[in-house]
Amino acid sequence: xxxxxxxxxxxxxxxEITKIFAPISGEIINIEKVPDIVFSDKIVGDGIAIxxxxxxxxxxxxxxxxxxxDTNHAFxxxxxxxxxxxxxxxxxxxxxxxxxxxxxxNFKKTNVVKKGEIIIEIDLDFLKKNAKSIYTxxxxxxxxxINKIKKYTGNVIAGIDPILEIYK
Length: 168
Description:
By secondary structure, this protein is mainly β. The protein has helices at 5-8, 37-40, 124-130, and strands at residues 17-21, 26-30, 46-52, 56-58, 63-68, 74-79, 84-88, 101-103, 112-113, 118-122, 136-140, 148-151, 155-156, 162-167. The chain has an 8-stranded antiparallel beta sheet with strand order 9-5-6-7-11-3-2-13, with no helix packed on it. The model has no long low-confidence stretch (mean pLDDT 92).
């Protein structure tokens, strides 16, 4: 074995790429613009936010719902390859105690979800008037296990357009 065989015979780690799709229609904004330091300073993870113009929140991936808050303003989901996402509609929307949100996903029946499946219906007009902000962060909470994130920009349609590419 010579010195070069050590480099050329190495088994390279295969990088897995996962696309995350828009959970709500609207315009992608930088996470740093979200008016809550928990999100803008990436305390809970990295990602993007969407300034929504739609009235449904769908699953951004095939995966397993971990939790849907009782107030229906946020939920967690884990992809089939263990990427953990947190989708949080608006800022301080927990204070609305569920008003403006209707759960459509039957969590009691199963926690397995398909990309594009409706999770929550929202009353966007009510939320625009009553929430501190309607910016909707989509966060990768296990960011320490991710090699790289590609963030998309522009307008997106829920369940159709990609917002993130995760390299794991």
